[in-house]
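USER: Please consider what follows.
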Amino acid sequence: MSMKRIKTLLLVLLASVVAVVFLLPLVWMISTSFKNDFEALSGKMNFIPLKPTFDNYIKGFSGELMNVPILQWITNSLMVGIAGTAIVLLIASMAAFALARLKDLPLRRTLLSMFIASLMIPGVLTFLPMYMEFNALGLINTYAALILPYTAGAFGVFLLYQFFISFPKDIEEAARIDGANKWRLYTSIMLPSSVSIMVTLLIFTFMGIYNDFVWPLYATTSPEMRTITAGIAMMAQGSYTQSYGKLMAMTAAAAIPVVVIFIIGQRSFVKAITQSAIK
């Protein structure tokens, strides 16, 4: 066997081990979600439930879990994730286009440096000032408090800037010769050409908003306004501390929207990574 084949085999084995390490907690979560509380607490490492049951899912979605509005939490997470992602895509694409293609923009390089520098600031440093600001505005425990903080990130601007700055100038000049103004150039040329990178940003942004835990936990005070991540955390600390089957069932249900979003945008996600690698 040649050295090239041996290296390939070792890489495949390494990738398989890494995949198993990442998938093992997910498989255990799904397996536990079909166990009753007695079996889940038994401590036995059996991935196949001895007596599979759908009661954990049925009770969760039918509202039989006392004072736990699971469907409302999932609805809140979806609303916040979709609204926040839409705003991020709009703001980030417009800002990136202006910084990359509008040479007459005042202080363009300074603004770009500020955007990049803001990526170095840990989010924990801005948590308290942001909470105090929203509290002073009376927005705590509202959808505005759950959505607006995510729309001010610089990651999307930086990601799209890298794409727009490398866009062929010949196409832009041809569009200008045909009479396209800045808005037409943005909507008809740049956006259709950046579908793959926009889908990538959509996936990252939605997953980040949907899976966020700390901010929704402190930005909401009533059970009805919580997102699914904060809600499950409250369940784990409340009367369902030892109900591992119910907790795993709700966690598995909460993961479904993120998995669906990733499956739908998987091709564009891979395409964007490939294009970036080629560039």
Notes: The two ends are 35 Å apart (CA to CA). The mean pLDDT is 83. The chain is about 75% helix and 0% strand.
